[in-house]
Amino acid sequence: MNVLERAFVKMGARVKFEDAKTRWMDGRRVRPDLALDVRNDDKGEYFLISRNCEAVEELIVLDVQPRDRHLVLMSRERGEKHRFLLGHDERHWFVASIPEAMPVSRVRDAKLALKPEAVIASESRLRSRERDRRRNAARVRQGEWFFVPAANVAMNPLLLLRNEPLVRSRGGRPHMCEQLYRFGGETVYVSPGAPNGLTDYEYRALSDGERSRWSWRVMRRNPRVYVRGRVRHPDHATVVLDGWHEVFSNTEHLSHAMRNVMFLD
């Protein structure tokens, strides 16, 4: 652990370790092989790495960029490799899972792997040094969300929403959008026992007892979303979007570690 601790210190962060504990997930208690969290104590924020030592065979820091305050961590769990980007974004530390299809080893490549294809395409004409900025000529980023300018949005004024939250299903505080318009996607039933949503077929397959156990909300999974105006979040500087922008989340939902996370709206 001393080797890992030195890497975190080099990045400018503190790290603590503990044995993996059981936690509630999709209405049942599970013990994850590896959990990476950002916690707080009287000294401020720190990373907490919880692992099941029988399952996690290896933890290695592949790259540290002190000036950027980022590092790439690789785990080997039950023979499978997983990579994570850990770092500091504006005001707080964060953890992001890298899709296994992108076996990166450098911070620069990890950042690229987290960008959706639409963002990469929109940035293709920019200089490389401009692509890591939170705002550039091709898009605006706030946390895990990217906003790409969209022309000729055929909007139904009756469906325009104001002060609407934008949040991923894993929870956390929402990004509040001054104006938001959504369409498409899949109808799902969401509850504390099924935070990522059940399709109509899955919901109807539940017994009466299972359905009555939770309070359910009807939501849309992976809709197309456009926003305009101010987007606020307590952990990030407010961004102002002139004109409609299409919303894209980063790609960490494609990773094995985040396979149960979907965009619900």
Notable characteristics:
5 helices, six-stranded antiparallel sheet, 47% strand, globular, four-stranded antiparallel sheet, single chain
Structure report:
With 265 residues, this protein is mostly beta strands. The chain is 13% helix and 47% strand. The protein folds into two domains: 2-114, no CATH class; 145-258, no CATH class. It is built from five helices and 18 strands. Strands 10-11-18-17-13-12 form a six-stranded antiparallel beta sheet. Strands 6-7-8-9 form a four-stranded antiparallel beta sheet, sandwiched between helices. Strand 2 (23-25) and strand 3 (28-30) form a beta hairpin.
Question: Layout of helices and strands, plus pairs?
Answer:
Layout (H helix, E strand, L loop, with lengths): L1 H10 L3 E5 L3 E3 L2 E3 L3 E8 L2 E8 L4 E10 L4 E8 L2 E10 L2 E7 L8 H7 L3 H6 L17 E3 L2 E5 L11 E6 L8 E9 L2 E6 L2 E5 L1 H5 L3 H6 L3 E5 L2 E10 L2 E14 L16
Parallel strand pairs: 1-5
Antiparallel strand pairs: 2-3, 4-5, 6-7, 7-8, 8-9, 10-11, 11-18, 12-13, 13-17, 14-15, 14-16, 17-18
Structural class: mainly beta
Please mark out the parts with pLDDT under 50 across 5 or more consecutive residues, or reply none: 260-265
Question: Radius of gyration in whole Å, from Cα?
Answer: 20 Å
Largest sheet: 6 strands, antiparallel
| Rounded mean pLDDT score | 88
Number of helices: 5
Order of helices and strands: HEEEEEEEEEHHEEEEEEHHEEE
Helix content: 10-25%
Number of strands: 18
Number of domains: 2
Oligomer: single chain
**What topology, given as strand order, has the largest sheet?**
10-11-18-17-13-12
β-strand percent reads over 45%
Overall, the morphology is globular
Ends distance: 40 Å
